[in-house]
Design brief:
Blueprint (H helix, E strand, L loop, with lengths): L1 E2 L1 E4 L10 H8 L4 H15 L5 H8 L8 H12 L5 H12 L3 E9 H4 L8 E10 L2 E7 L6 H13 L3 E2 L5 E4 L5 H4 L4 E5 L6 E3 L4
Parallel strand pairs: 1-6, 2-3, 2-7, 3-4, 7-8
Antiparallel strand pairs: 4-5, 8-9
Helix pairs in contact: 2-3
Amino acid sequence: MLTKFAFFDFDDTLIHGDSGGKLLKKHPLSVFKLLKVVYHYALYLLKIEPLNKAKSAWLYPLDKMSDQEIEKFYQEVLEPCYYLNVIEELKKKKAEGYTIYICSASVEAYLRFCKLPVDEILGTKTDIKDGKYTSQTIGKNCKNEEKVKRIQEVIKNHNLEIDYDLSYAYSDSLHDIPMLKMVKNRIKIDTKDGHMSTFEIE
């Protein structure tokens, strides 16, 4: 079924700043953890191991947090960082009958607590052990072309088709060009104040 979609990035699009960085502010890295992150990022930059190893090390606070604590983090730390004008845009699109997806490299471990009127939340997945979300990432980081792949998988499962001319995508980053190219209407979010403008893509 031909469907009008609105795709939203999360970090610096729906919220001001990086949600993973805000998680670390709540649970700062110890010297040991910091060295571990630096080590894995160095191996990633040297193309010795995938980014997920470094990302898992960065997300270590999740290993120490209960579901209630993760939800509290979302409500008390991330929600106050919403760009209110972008949130109003999301709600407006929902009221106009758009199918709304959040698609982000941020992890579903905390994105799942989003209470905005969205139809799907597609984020980087982390392992669940004994019913508890952990820092161990599963699959690819939900970024660049991976966002397109994840979106396409979901819409195929729902027997939907993107109405290219009527659909929208919102992002602050050039990394999201693959997702932005899925639709005709591309909106750039200014990271300073959430101002929206046309995202010019060559």
